[in-house]
Structures are given as C-alpha cells and as structure tokens.
Amino acid sequence: MRHRGDSFVKRFDANSYLYITKAMDYFDLSDFLPAGKGLETRFLVIAFKSDWLYPAYQSQAIVRRLKNRGCDATYCEINSTYGHDAFLVEVGEETRLIKGFLTKTYHGLK
Predict the structure, then answer these.
(1) pTM recorded for the entire structure
(2) Which pLDDT tens digit goes with each residue over 51-106?
(3) Which DSSP string do the residues of 10-66 spell out, in sequence order?
(4) Pick from 27, 30, 48, 110: most CB atoms within 10 A?
C-alpha cells in the first residue's frame, strides 16, 4: 500500500485530483438530454460487479434514465474481483464488449 501511495503522489498533483473527482461527482448527463425525446446517439454503459466507487446499481440507474428519455442504452456488467481498478485489468473483456457495440452501431443493428 505504501508503494502504491508513493507512486500515486508522484503521478498526480493532489489539487488536480480534487478537481477531477469533483467534476466526476457533479457531472449530470441528464442536463444534456432533451426531455421527452431520444437522441440518435447509442450508449454503452459498462459496470464492474466489485467496483465500490461506482457501484453497478448506479450504472443501472443511468441506463434506466437514458431509456426513460427515449435513448438507446445498453448495459453490460463484468464480473470481476478487482474492485474499482477492474477497468485497468479487465481490458480484454472491455475490448470485446466495446468492439461488439461499435460493430452493431456501425451496421445499424440493435
């Protein structure tokens, strides 16, 4: 843990990290979605079962909100034991999901 902490402070300025996390916490996608009509944009939301910082139920809520606004939203959950760092480790599974989503989007499939 000490090594990880020392490595982290060498790569990130504490103030920058505070601003980044504040921006993530306050960002609300619904501010950009017109009420009552969907967008032509398709959304892929990927969650990780063991992520404690962004739990899967929050990603599911995002997808529900998108769908309630008439948007085309797909939810995928990766079963991983790596917690929040899963997005750094489960690259193969993420790549497979994103590639499939983009292929379907390009060919106009649902």
Answers:
(1) 0.76
(2) 998 999 999 999 998 888 888 999 999 999 999 999 999 999 999 999 999 999 88
(3) HHS-HHHHHHHHHHHHH--GGGGSPTTS--S-EEEEEEETT-SSS-HHHHHHHHHHH
(4) 48
